[in-house]
Amino acid sequence: MITLITIVHVLVCFGLIAVVLLQVGKGAGLANIFGGGSSGLFTPSSGGFMAKFTAVLAVMFLITSLYLSLVTKTVRTSSTIEKVLNQQETTVPQEAPAQEIPAPAKE
């Protein structure tokens, strides 16, 4: 289930990026804010199909993000490195106690 939601999350992410990049700008940016054009920062604009589709994708992205964060918080999966380290700790043979090496005889 987590894998399916992750795949949907990534697809929604790419879709959201594509829809935002395909949208047409709404004027000349900062020049319109202070009365340089017919539409400004505070003027109402009717949302077309792309704006509504962007909102739907944004909500889907938010929901999948929240779901994945809650699921991964409750399901703790260890990483591959942790698994290897745990496996090495259990399979490390006990070393024999160090034997005293006699000092070389002086002639």
Mean pLDDT: 77
Q: Can you count the beta strands?
A: 0
The gyration radius over C-alpha positions equals: 31 Å
Low-confidence stretches: none
Spatial gap, N to C terminus: 77 Å
Domain count: 1
What structural class do the secondary elements suggest?
mainly alpha
Give the % helix: 55-70%
Relative strand content:
under 5%
Count of discrete alpha- or pi-helical segments spanning 4 or more residues? 4
Q: What is the general shape?
A: elongated
Largest sheet: none
- Reading the helices and strands in chain order gives HHHH
Topology diagram in text:
Layout: H1 2-22, H2 30-33, H3 49-74, H4 80-91
How would you portray this structure in words?
This protein is mainly alpha-helical and 107 residues long. The chain has one domain. Helix content is 59%, strand content 0%. The chain has helices at 2-22, 30-33, 49-74, 80-91. Helix 1 packs antiparallel against helix 3 (49-74). It is elongated.
Name a few traits of the molecule.
single chain, mainly alpha
